[in-house]
Amino acid sequence: MGNWQVRESYSFGRMLTALRLDQGLRQEDLGELIGVSGTTVSRWERNESRPDVNVVMDLADVLEVSASKLLSKWQAQRYGETGDRHG
What we know:
The chain is mainly alpha-helical. The protein is built from 5 helices and no strands. Helix 2 (27-34) packs across helix 3 and helix 4 (53-63) packs across helix 5 (67-79).
């Protein structure tokens, strides 16, 4: 497993970057594997936007990580780091 595990405070974007680099992929490579542009991957990594939950599942497959791990970071950012879904 990659170095991303040691930093639970990573944002979704930082985790995605670490996992992509662990696989030796460029942003363009990852984008091609999941059907998006390298620019889109870059936006996710900079936390400027987030992928659809279905794309997160594809990312998990390509990056060889559990979908639940990626989804936990995706949800934490979507709802705020506290996980408060009520505002």
